Amino acid sequence: MSNLRSNIVSWLGRKYFSRIQKNGFDLSKMSFLPDATLAPLRRDGLDPITDLSRTRAKEPISKIWLPFGINAWLVTGYDETKAVLGKAKGFSSDFTNLAERNIGVAPQQNPGGLGFSDPPTHTRLRRLLTPEFTMRRLSRLTPRIHSIVEERLDEMAAAEGPVDLVESFALPIPALVICELLGVPYEDRDDFQRHSTARFDLFGGANASLGAMSDSLSYLHGIVRKQRETPGDGLLGMLVKEHGDEVDDQELAGLADGVLTGGLETTASMLALGTLVLLQAPEHFAAIRDHDNSVDPFVEELLRYLTVVQVAFPRFAREDMEIAGTRISAGDLVLCSLSGANRDEKLGPDMERVDPHRQAPSHLAFGYGIHRCIGAELAKMELRAAYPALIRRFPEMRLAVPAEKLSFRKLSIVYGVDELPVLLR
C-alpha cells in the first residue's frame, strides 16, 4: 500500500509540476513531494523513519525525485556524508544556486551568513566570527549560562501543576544566551523564537520558511544600524568596532541571523528532546543526577542519537565526480541526511539506542568540514549546564502526559517537540 501511495503521489506531483513549470515552482507545495524525497525530514518519535535506514543499507547515495528535471541525490551513509561535506572545492552551498533554478526563490531572499556562502566569502566571514567562538572566549559566558539556568529553574519551581518544559526551560535558555552573546534586546525573544521555528518548519511550505527569514533579517538590519551608531559590548558591537570597514550591513545582519537561529532553535530542541530521553531512561537519569563525569559523554551521545538538524545545507556539484562508486554530475543537487548518517551501523553496533559508553567515531550532528557549526562548543556548554541542573533540582520529574500523546514536528529541518508537559514533584 505504501508503494502504491508513493507512486500515485509521485505521478500527481509530476503532473502538477509540469503544469506550473512555465510559471516557476511554488515552494509552498513542498510538502506534496513524494515520501522518498521527504524521508530525511520525517521521524517516528525520536527515531528516523525505517525507510531511511533501509535506503542507507541498500544505497547510501540514492537518487531522489525533484521537479524541473533537477538531478538530486540523498546521502544517508556516514562515510559518504563526510566525503560530500568535506569536499568544499567540489560542492557549492551558495544561495544563488537556488535562486537561479526558477523554483520560486528570489535572489533578495538570500539570508546571508555562513551556511549559504562559499569561499572566499565564507572564509572571510568565518574568520571574523571564529575568535568569538573559541573555548577561551566562550568561557566568559559560563557564569551567565549557569545563572540563566538557575533563574529558569526558580521560576519553574514556583509554578503550580504541570509545566511545559519547552516554554519554561528549553526555549528561554538559548534565547537568553544568544541575546547575551549578540548584544540584542532580550525583550524581543518571542519574535526571535517564532521566526526561528517557522524558518525550519516546511510543513506549511518553504515560502513560509523564507518569509520568516525575511522578517528576522528586517529586524536585525535595524539592530545593525543601531550598532553602527553606538557599538555595544556584544558580538555585533565587536564586529563593528574591529571589522566595521570589512563587512557591510547585509553581511552583519546575515551573520547575526545565522548565530541567532543556529544557536536558538537547535539548542532548544536538544534541551527538550534530551530531557525526554532522560525521562524515559531511568539509568541515564540517575547517572546524570549522581555523577558529574557522566555528563560530557552523555551529551555527545545524545547529540549523535537525536541529531536535531536533520539535513545539511544543500550542496550543488561544481564538477563531475564519483563518491563511493556513485557518479555525480556537475549541477546535481546533493542532500546529506545527518540523522541517517549518525545512525549508520558502520559506526558500531546498536546505533538505534543511547549508549554514552560507546566508542564511536565523531558524530556529524554539527555537520563537517568548512561548514561545521561555528557555535558547536557554545551549544555543548549550555547542554552540559542545563541537564544536570534540571534533574538535580527536580529528581521526581516525570511526564505529565503519556509519551505517545506528545506532538512532534511533521516536516522540519530542525526536529523538535511542540510541548513537553512535565510534573516536577
TrEMBL record:
CDD domains: CYP105-like (cd11030)
Gene3D superfamilies: Cytochrome P450
Entry superkingdom: Bacteria
InterPro entries cross-referenced by the UniProt entry: Cyt_P450, Cyt_P450_B, Cyt_P450_CS, Cyt_P450_sf
One Pfam family from the record: p450
Keywords: Heme, Iron, Metal-binding, Monooxygenase, Oxidoreductase
PANTHER family: P450, PUTATIVE (EUROFUNG)-RELATED
Entry's family note: Belongs to the cytochrome P450 family.
Protein name: Cytochrome P450
Source species: Streptomyces yatensis
